[in-house]
Amino acid sequence: MVGDDSWESLADHFADEAYASAKGLVRTTVLHQQLLEHLPAPPAAVLDVGGGAGHQSFPLARAGYDVTLLDPSAAMLGKAQQRLRKLPDDARHRVTLLQADGENADEALDGRRFAAVLRHGVLGYLEDPEPLIDQLCRCADAGGVVSIMAGNAHAMAVRPALERRWDDALASFDASSEIGVLGVPTHAHTVEELSDLIRDRGIEPARPLPPTQPNLPPRRTQRSQLTGIAHPHRVE
To answer: What topology is assigned to 4-150+189-200 in CATH?
Structure first.
């Protein structure tokens, strides 16, 4: 079941501006290279939950992976469809678009399991991430990879400081939420917090991925990035 499309008014900004910016391009490119260090060889099946317009998962389709992009927003899937038409034929045929809420991913996918499950950049839009994380972990095959990228609660002061908003930067040291670049509230998490959540669900955290801002110490980068490996003998 899919509710109202809260992303309809944000789709253009998100897909055509935020991800098309220099920052967006660098982030997706660096994260793509880091993902390849953890993923099994293509054509392994990859699920991108809340994958939006496919900025992170379409490069994986180009690399030979079988990609399923699941998103609740018809507007965002429309953006994905536009970008999908620009892929080479072989990559385009490896992509499936599916409209569904991430919290219902297992049901929407009829229990299918994936070699890798991604949730990048949009975990922070949820008040309570745990039902979604339940689904990410459930959809990963035994020995599969779960990859999460979210706002880093240790580094909430970085963006306002870079923008010289000093009062906001000082206040951010004690904050775990903010108004993000899209003008809507977002919540931040730490690698430690996310590690505990996935470990409780049978996913063993691997080392955190290197920061997407390599000149900053890991605890001060704006994004927390984590991969985990599904235990081969877990019971669902």
So the answer is: Rossmann fold (3.40.50)
